[in-house]
Design a protein that fits this description.
Layout lengths: L1 H14 L1 H8 L3 H13 L4 H11 L1 H21 L3 H29 L5 H30 L3 H20 L14 H12 L2 H20 L2 H9 L3 H29 L1 H18 L7 H26 L7 H62 L1
Helix pairs in contact: 1-6, 1-7, 1-8, 2-3, 3-6, 4-5, 4-6, 4-9, 4-15, 5-6, 5-8, 6-7, 6-15, 7-12, 7-14, 10-14, 10-15, 12-13, 12-14, 13-14, 13-15
Length: 380
């Protein structure tokens, strides 16, 4: 529930930017600026991750949900642009606090042979926000006004925090020498002991860049190529949500059996092929939607399988590892959005597909090399 609330709050400005623009009486560009602000919060990962390793993952989860509830409930009390900006910013900060903490907590509590099941189940909330959270938010906007989803998310965040405080025991503070920078010094030393982590961060950055290179232009492709209406484009988004949900279910049920490293590499290789063949899917709308389905299925399967592996790469600093990985994903999405916006006008879907395939190939190389170095370091 907590992850579903967080992901819905993260995706809501994308889906309802025009409604928020009208409700607040501001230009649409003012809402898209808030989306950029939300994404920029992922850069706080290097600051928040070591704190989770120091203060405990439960504390970080509760802090994230607390910030989310403060921001969203503030919109219900004072529905103006400033409070919406605060809510969107705090939603981004909440995610950078909560996500690495829950992933690290799963890594600490669940045996590695079952890690794919645990992470896969947690990550189903990402698809759930598309298939459940966003549609319900739309119903609330239609019936109770544009600010009503903020209030609902704030209440649900509070309830989720109470539940987590009840079921997850508190953990004692880890020792350090008392200086304010000690926690960051320890995190840096952990990264030096595990150099493979940097290569794996590069994988996350590159694979997210490849995906967003297509994600930012798929609506334009479908609209211009098949004359789809806004309603029909919404249907295409459902296709993506179903692909993500299926991928996360496959991680939960299959990746542990075949091995998490093999699953991540196989998913990334499939993603490379799906990007490369996407231009061939332009003949008909069913082919186009099938191509998008394959892209998001393979991407989500690879990134969640890899995430399951990453929870074990730095076992003494899991919060640091997962927060830096989330920051790498945010940086990759920003890079991919910029590249996608430049490549699409130059060469259409052919150029976009080739660019995404090339970037994803580099991601595959980084993943294979990083996992090899990690396994070698474990054996030595």
């Amino acid at each position: 529930m907590a992850r579903l609330v967080l992901n819905t709050s993260r995706r809501m400005p994308y889906a309802f930017a025009p409604a928020f623009s009208r409700g607040l009486g501001v230009p649409l560009a003012a809402i898209t600026s808030l989306i950029a602000l939300n994404q920029a919060t992922s850069l706080l990962g290097p600051l928040s991750g070591p704190l989770g390793d120091r203060w405990g993952y439960r504390t970080m989860m509760l802090s994230g949900l607390g910030l989310l509830s403060i921001g969203t409930l503030a919109v219900g009390i004072l529905p103006v642009y400033t409070t919406v900006a605060l809510a969107v910013a705090l939603a981004g900060v909440a995610k950078i606090l909560f996500d690495p903490a829950i992933q690290a907590y799963a890594g600490e509590c669940v045996p590695y042979q079952n890690r794919g099941l645990a992470i896969g189940m947690i990550e189903t909330s990402w698809a759930g926000s598309t298939l459940l959270g966003i549609p319900l938010a739309g119903i609330l906007i239609d019936r109770a006004g544009w600010q009503s989803p903020f209030v609902a998310l704030g209440v649900l965040a509070l309830l989720s925090g109470l539940f987590i405080a009840w079921v997850i025991p508190a953990t004692p503070l880890r020792r350090h020498d008392g200086r304010w920078w000690a926690v960051y010094r320890d995190a840096w030393q952990s990264l030096r002991r595990w150099p493979a982590a940097w290569t794996l961060f590069s994988f996350t950055l590159l694979t997210c860049a490849a995906n967003d290179c297509i994600f930012v232009v798929y609506a334009s492709w479908l609209e211009t190529g098949f004359a789809l209406t806004v309603v029909a484009l919404g249907g295409a988004t459902i296709v993506i949500g179903v692909a993500e949900l299926l991928a996360e279910g496959l991680v939960a049920t299959v990746s542990d059996r075949i091995g998490l490293s093999r699953a991540a590499i196989a998913g990334t290789a499939l993603a490379v092929m799906s990007y490369a063949v996407l231009p061939l899917a332009s003949a008909t709308l069913p082919l186009a939607l099938s191509g998008l389905f394959l892209i998001f299925l393979s991407f989500e399967f690879s990134i969640v399988s890899a995430m399951s592996v990453f929870t074990e790469v730095m076992p003494h600093a899991r919060g640091t590892m997962m927060s830096l990985n989330l920051s790498a994903a945010g940086a990759g999405r920003t890079l991919g959005a910029l590249l996608g916006g430049m490549v699409w006008p130059m060469g259409g879907l052919l150029a976009s597909g080739i660019t995404a395939a090339a970037i994803c190939t580099m991601a595959l190389i980084c993943l294979a090399w990083g996992l090899r170095r990690w396994h070698a370091s474990q054996q030595s």
